[in-house]
Structure formats: C-alpha cells, structure tokens
TrEMBL record:
Signal peptide: none annotated. It comes from the Bacteria. It comes from Niabella ginsenosidivorans. This is Endo-acting ulvan lyase C-terminal domain-containing protein. Gene3D superfamilies: 2.70.98.70, Chondroitin AC/alginate lyase. InterPro entries: Chondroitin_lyas (IPR008929), Ulvan_lyase_C (IPR058848).
C-alpha cells in the first residue's frame, strides 16, 4: 500500500487536514498512473524549436529579444562555471542549522509571520515576513537592492535598505515582501537561462539554471504551506507572493532531460509542484482578482505533475470546478466569465487591476492551449478582455484611474496573446485586435523587442499589416463601477474626454461623483490612485477618501459607511445613478460638438442629495471646454474640490488679475474628525468672494507651458482655497513625487438652488485660451434650473440650459426649454445650432424644436439649409417666414415634408434621422 504520509507529508499538516479537499485527494489517489510527457510542453514543445530559431533569424525584434536575454545572463552563466556558489549564496534561504525552518505561522489576518518551527537537513526557502514591502515611518518606499548588492549566505532577518525620496540614507529594516521579490529576480534569470539552453544547447546556461532550481527544490520539498488564514501561501505569507516562483515549473520543463542526464535529484520535484498546485487552487480569495492572478502558477505546476490523475485533478479546477470555501478558493473559467468580466471583457475592478488578473488568465490559457485544451474557442470572452482597456482609454492611451490603482494602459502582452489565439481560431474579433496593435505601436510606441521570453517563445512572428485606425466610441459605460465617459476627438493633443464614476465594488474609493478630465495631451484633472500600501495613514485617511477626488463633500463629513480603516476591499458608498446621457454608451452621437451626462447620488453618510451634469462642448477641431454643474442639498455647507496635475495654481478675479489672498486653513469637521481628509490639503490661501473667479493651473510639458483654466460662476457665501494636496500617483512620472495643486470652493449653506457651476478649458501656451468669460443668465426662481452664457474670444457664445427636473418648461422672452441639457450656439446673437441632449422642447429666436417623446436632437442652421439629427420624431417651427413653400428632407432618400402654417410662421415634422438635410424652398410670388 502507498504511504501517502511519506510521499506528500504536506497533505497531513493541520492546515490541510481540516479541508474537504483532503478527503477528495485520499479518495482519488488509490488509482495512480504516470503519464509519459515529452518535454518541454508547458509553453512550447520540441516541434516549436525550429520555428522559434527561424523567428530569431528572420525577425529583427525576436533577435533583439534573444540577444538581450543572452547578454543579460551571460556574465552570470560565465561566473557560474568557476564560482557556482556566487548566485546560490545570494538566494534568500534559511541556512543556519537548527533554523532551517519547515513550518511557518501567520497572524490571524494572514498578513505577517509570527512564528517558525522545524529544522530541515539542508537550507529551506526563506518566506517573506509580511505581505507588504517595507515602508518608512513617513510612508515612503525603500529601494529594492540589486542581486549584486545582496550579502552572500545572508542569515540576518534585517537588511540595509536605501530610503527613496530626498533623505536617501540606508537603514536596517525587515525586508518583508522584498524577500520573495529578490528570489523572484534570481528565478527569472534561471528561467531565461533555461530558454537559451533549450534553443542553443549551451551547457553553461543549463548548469546555471539547474543549480538554482535544484537548491530551491531541495529546500521547498521540506517545507509546509504557511499556516494561518486562507490567504497564506506555500513559500510566501500570502499565496499571491508564490507567483514569484511560477518560473520554477517552466525551468524544470526546459531542463527535464538535462537534469536526468546530469543526475540531479529530481525525486524532490513532484511533491513541490503539487504543493504549489494545491495552494494555488485552495488558498487565496475568489471574490477579487487574487485567484486569477494565481492561475499561471496553478496551471504550470499542475501541468508539471507526472501523475496523470493528479494533473487532471487540479486542471479540472481551472476548467470546470469552483473551490469556494467562504471567501477562500478559486473560480473556474465559466464562473470567471460570468462573475468577473463585463460583456465587453473589462475586469470588474478598477482599470489598473484589469491587466493583472486578465494577463495571468491569458498566460494560463495559453499553456492550456499548448497542452490540447481549446480554452479560447470555448471562452471567447478572453479575447475581448485582451484588448478592452484600450476602448476606455483617454486620448493619451492611459486608462481611467478610479479606485486603488496606479497608472494603467492597454497591456501589449494581453493584446499579443489575444492576437495569437484569435488568429488560431479565425475569430471575428481579429481585425479589431490588429487595429488595436497598430494603435499601440503608432501612438504608444510599443516595440515587440520589449516582449521578453514570452514574446520570443509564443507570439506571432509578425502582426498583420494594418493601417486601420482603432475605432473609439464617443461614449462608454462600466456598469459595475457606475462609470460613464464622453469623448470628443481622439488626437493626443486636442482630444477631450471625461469620466465620472462612483460605486461600491472591490478596490473602489470613497469619492461620491468623481470626475477625471483630459486636456493638452494628458489627464489634467486627475484621480489620485493609491498610497504606497493600503495601510499607510495617508492612504487610509486621504487617497481613499473624498478630499483626494474631484467631487463634492457634503457637510464636511462625507465618508463610507462604515468608515474605512485600511485594506483593499470595497468601501460602502452606495452608488451613483445615471439619469440621462447623450450619446448613450457605444451609441452614435447626435451632435459633432456636444455631449453630456446627468448623474445623481445620495451621500449615505450625510443623506445629502446630489446631482451632477457634465458636458463637453467643442468649439473647433483644436479647442473646446468642459461644463460642470454640481448640486448638493446639505443645509450646513458643501465643498467642491478639484485637483490638477501641475506646478502651480492661482486665483484670478473677473478681470484676470490675482485675487487678494490670505493664509487660512480649510475648516474641518470635528465630530467625527475630518472624515473626508481635507486636512491633507495644506499651505492653503483663501479668498471669500461672491464674484466670478478663475482658477488657473499651470505645468510645463515638453518645453511648453500647459494650462487648465477653471471659470467659476459666482455665488454668495463662498470661500475659495488654493493649496497643495499630496502627490498623485497616476500623474506623469515627473509629478508623482510632487504636491498636487488643488482648489476647494466652500459654500456655506445648500448648493442645490445655488449649484457649483464651472467651465474647464485646457490650453497650451500663455494666453492661448478660448473661453473669455461666463455669466449666469437671469432665472425665475426655479432651484432646479441653470442658464449660463459662455463668451468666447472668437465672438461666439453658447447659451447653456440645464435642469434637474426634466418635466418643467422654462420660458423667457426669447427661449423655451424643457429637458435635462441644452446648448444654443450663437454668433452675433444668431443661432448656429440648437442641441438638446435629452428633453421635449428647445427654442431660441425664430427656431424651435419639440420632440414627440423625450429624446435628443441637434439642429444646425444656415440661410436656406438646416441639418438635423434626432433620436425620435421632431417637430420644427420657424417663425417669421411664411413664404416657405416647400420643405425637403434629404438623406438616404429624399422626402417632401408636410408644412403646417402657424400664427407666426411654419412647422413640419421630421422622422428620426442622422445627418438629414432640410432644404427650404421660398415662394417669391407676391
């Protein structure tokens, strides 16, 4: 009878015996079979070698990858010939006899090690003491040492690390998760050396990789998975950290025959790989990106098992069967697609987290494909996920930065794998992926020589020649995040785009209705990203809170409920709702100039009701601005906050002269103490004024001054503050360690009848702005209605009409409006277009439009021709010209429209149409 305790002692540890899976393992292990598999087989097989060598010979990019890998490894491999202990001694191991630990114990939360026990006959792999990297008392990072800087045979638990930032001294600190990262760097060297050996047969590379692998396997074979919460790993305090060792099954795969020819003790490997497969399958969390990130380690380890029944056992959990045990476990691909991917393939977390789980799922899927499992044919959603981040990107190809994220953009790695698999299956998404790749290469500067060993081994030799421009929609929506975006123009320098969002989901921030604004080649109105870790005070008390975002605080105390105290999970803020939007997500726009969103939110901490209208208004191909109207009904006070990437911010009066400012701190809520984190905006200068003001942000980019001007419509009981917020980690690199210029507009009393009204215009070059001034138009006491005129330096004016109540008709001497949002573009007080994003009626001067059902319409006006786009049937009236004898609608087909005479002109109905031309024929007879 097989003695399982001797073969797989880890299965009998306390942490494993308590699980149902142990019973499954024991029940299924009595019928064993060893599968004879040719090696390598995980990512490539023997028949691929000549194809890859041909790729290197014929493709310049592949040769650069190969040459780069070889030149990086060569010094290590050469030294290893005479001094094999040099690299082995720098691997972080438990080396002291009596302290060659085999058992590791984590705290209750699975965040840090609290104990060690056991003593192996040879060194074991050192386990990181904490899930996070070390951080200074000030919340700054330490510099990761190079391999050359590591002390050989280091047995200390502390390491001398250099502080990042202005004070770059060295300190003795616990390296925490740096342990596994440093070992991972050596593992990567060994993997690339094994690839070079497989391709060239050069023995020195094989010896270098094999010795690293062998030392690791001997130590790991004696170790038990960390005991504690289910987030704990095998060789890391958390299972995610085991990703630093996913290279090991690949190294083994490439060196399989070499190891046996040179009499390495390969009997150790099977048990180690099963420990990895088991830990990746049953530890970690299924209710966030965790499990997906573990997929390559899980699949690589499972594919390395010689016992076919054990291999199939673990692969079944990737393919078919979930392992849910409370919040712990792993989801199989059918559940991944259902729970974690939007219909177009976006991972249901912030964009900065999309690439992490998706790239790992794609890599695992690639390995499964190589071993005969048609993953991408069965789950084509993975192909959509491979390119979807580009769809939601700003014109500089950066993704929106909402939530716990860093800078993110479309991953070339994901796209390369998507192209490979779409080509294999001739999927209809292939042309879209090809145009996406063309865009990354032309606009982002992606070069395939940066693709590393994965590109060398797996990517297509050539991407199909494609000059097609990627087709960005004018609008988009991510329902899980309640994120709604509008764009106008996709050029990097002159494109305009905003994203507004707010919801409760994993890794969200507490931010209400927060917005990001793009301008002059970059995201200027930025969301902050995250702190150094999820636990440092500035992250907990600022980055995660309202004050870090472009939003409105109600009553100085907006916060999640319950209040957030650290970590990366969901912060309960409820969610915003979309009330109206034009164009709707992925739909055609009615106007070439205008688009808008109307969102609503109830602050669950204060019960304040809020409404935000955001719009883009394009003035020309190179100029335009954003409109923001934000209502909040908290009776005590409301704070409007805006942060802009840059160097300085100044406050100007209506004549564009500097305001007189005094040093003053922003008033803070005291009970509870400042939940939104306003105290982190420092060095503030203030001015109390009810007049219109302009906030002018400045930064330098590529030798040119760039600006964002923010024109605020005046209201009584307002105080403006200009100050410095903490650094923005999603900003361009040069600004990530600098304070972020910010303004706070604090309104005493409610801000519903007196909403915050602002125009944002990005521009390049001093004095090159287009918007000259704004003026609020007289109203008749309707607290839900706003009328604003925007005066431009080219002589045009936009009369903007906005209402939080769509059902009320607003009428003045020369205009009528019943709807959510409308724009009347005027030149010399004559209308050039009338736009209604959503509503029933808009009228100015002699032109009027009534919609049969609430909808969108744009009417462009010239002497005898009108151009119209409307979402439904529209009734057009023209006053003062009864000589019009006929009206023709020209488009796909010509149609004569029936004219009705009115008391002061004519009227006619137009069916739903896109870009229809209305030709007016005038009767000149007396």
């Amino acid at each position: 009878m097989i003695n399982l305790r001797n073969i797989f002692p880890f299965l009998f540890s306390r942490s494993f015996l308590g699980r149902t899976v142990a019973v499954i393992l024991l029940g299924s292990f009595t019928n064993t079979s060893v599968c004879q598999t040719a090696h390598p087989h995980i990512l490539v097989n023997a028949s691929d070698k000549q194809l890859i060598l041909d790729k290197i010979a014929r493709q310049a990019w592949a040769k650069k990858v190969f040459d780069s890998m070889r030149s990086a490894i060569a010094p290590y491999a050469e030294r290893h010939k005479t001094d094999p202990q040099w690299i082995l001694s720098r691997y972080l191991m438990n080396r002291v006899p009596g302290k060659r630990y085999t058992h590791f114990y984590a705290d209750a939360g699975g965040s840090a090690l609290i104990g060690y026990s056991g003593d192996a006959p040879f060194p074991t792999v050192r386990v990181s003491s904490n899930k996070r990297p070390p951080v200074t008392k000030e919340g700054l990072s330490y510099k990761l040492p190079t391999i050359e800087q590591l002390k050989p045979y280091d047995t200390a638990m502390l390491m001398q690390l250099e502080r990042l930032g202005p004070d770059a001294r060295k300190e003795w600190v616990d390296p925490q998760s740096f342990v596994e990262v440093l070992n991972g760097k050596i593992n990567q060297l060994a993997l690339e050396a094994s690839v070079i050996f497989w391709l060239t047969g050069e023995q020195s590379y094989a010896a270098f990789a094999a010795d690293i692998l062998d030392q690791w396997a001997h130590g790991a074979s004696q170790q038990f998975p960390v005991e504690g919460a289910c987030r704990t790993g095998f060789l890391s305090v958390q299972s995610l950290g085991d990703g630093q060792y996913e290279a090991m099954p690949l190294i083994y795969d490439f060196l399989y025959d070499y190891l046996r020819r040179h009499h390495y003790g390969t009997s150790w490997y099977e048990s180690v790989f099963e420990k990895i497969a088991h830990t990746m399958t049953f530890n970690g969390f299924w209710n966030n990106n965790w499990f997906a990130a573990q997929s390559p380690a899980m699949v690589f380890a499972a594919l390395s098992l010689e016992d076919r029944s054990r291999k199939d056992f673990y692969l079944n959990f990737f393919l078919n069967k979930d392992t849910i045990n409370g919040s712990c476990g792993h989801l199989a691909l059918p559940s991944v697609v259902k729970k974690w991917l939007t219909p177009d393939g976006h991972w249901k977390e912030p964009g900065g987290y999309h690439n992490y789980p998706v790239s790992n799922l794609l890599i695992a899927g690639l390995a499964m494909e190589k071993n005969g499992y048609p993953i991408f044919r069965q789950f084509p959603q993975l192909l959509r996920a491979s390119s979807v981040l580009l769809k939601y990107s700003f014109p500089d190809l950066s993704a929106p930065s909402f939530g716990d994220t860093g800078p993110a953009s479309q991953s070339p790695e994901c796209l390369e794998i998507g192209l490979l698999m779409a080509t294999k299956y001739k999927d209809r998404i292939l042309p879209q992926l090809q145009s996406a790749m063309h865009t990354l290469q032309q606009k982002k500067g992606y070069r395939r020589e940066a693709s590393g060993y994965m590109g060398l081994l797996c990517y297509l030799p050539e991407t199909a020649s494609c000059s097609a421009v990627y087709n960005w929609p004018r609008s988009g929506a991510l329902d899980f995040a309640k994120c709604y975006l509008q764009r106008n123009g996709t050029g990097k320098e002159h494109g305009l785009m905003y994203a507004v969002q707010g919801a409760t989901y994993n890794h969200n921030h507490a931010n209400g209705m927060s917005v990001e604004l793009y301008g002059s080649g970059m995201v200027m109105g930025v969301d902050p990203g995250k702190g150094v870790t999820y636990e440092v005070p500035v992250h907990v008390n600022y980055y995660e809170q309202w004050a870090a975002h472009n939003t409105v605080i109600s009553g100085s105390r907006s916060a999640s409920v319950p209040y957030f105290h650290g970590g990366g999970g969901a912060k309960n803020i409820g969610h915003i709702t979309l009330s109206a939007m034009e164009p709707l997500a992925d739909s055609n726009a009615i106007s070439p100039f205008c688009s808008f969103t109307d969102t609503r939110y109830t602050d669950i901490a204060t019960r304040a009701k809020q409404q935000r209208t955001l719009a883009i208004i394009r003035l020309s191909d190179s100029t335009g601005y954003y409109l923001d109207i934000y209502r909040s009904d908290h009776p005590q006070d409301n704070e409007y906050i805006y942060h802009n990437t840059g160097d300085t911010v100044s406050l100007l009066n209506r004549d564009r002269k500097p305001l007189e400012l005094k040093r003053a701190a922003i008033p803070l809520c005291r009970s509870p103490f400042d939940p939104p984190g306003l105290r982190y905006i420092r060095n503030t200068l203030s001015s109390a004024t009810g007049e219109n003001i302009t906030a002018l942000f400045r930064l330098e980019r590529n030798g040119t001054d760039q600006y964002m001007q923010v024109l605020f419509a005046g209201q009584n009981d307002r105080t403006f503050y200009a100050g410095e917020a903490p650094s923005t980690n999603t900003a361009p690199p040069v600004y990530r360690n600098r304070p972020t210029p910010a303004i706070v507009c604090r309104q005493q009393g409610e801000a519903w009848a007196r909403p915050f009204v602002a125009i944002y215009e990005p521009f390049a070059g001093s004095g090159k702005y287009s918007v000259d001034r704004i003026e609020m138009e007289s109203e008749r006491g309707d607290k839900n209605f706003t009328a604003l005129s925007v005066y431009n330096r080219d002589g045009s004016r936009q009369l903007i009409l906005q209402s939080a109540d769509y059902t009320v008709l607003k009428q003045t001497a020369i205009s009528k409006f019943e709807g959510a949002f409308g724009v009347i573009n005027l030149v010399k007080d004559q209308p050039r277009y009338l736009y209604m994003g959503y509503g029933r009626c808009i009228e100015y001067g002699k032109y009027g439009i009534k919609m049969k059902k609430p909808g969108a319409v744009n009417l462009s006006v010239s002497a005898k021709i009108l151009e119209i786009s409307c979402s439904g049937e529209a009734y057009i009236t023209i006053k003062g010209n009864k000589q019009i004898a006929a009206v023709f609608l020209k488009g796909p087909t010509e149609k004569k429209l029936l004219i009705e005479k009115t008391a002061d002109g004519i009227g006619f109905s137009v069916p739903p149409v896109k870009g229809g031309i209305i030709q007016l024929t005038v009767n000149h007879q007396p």
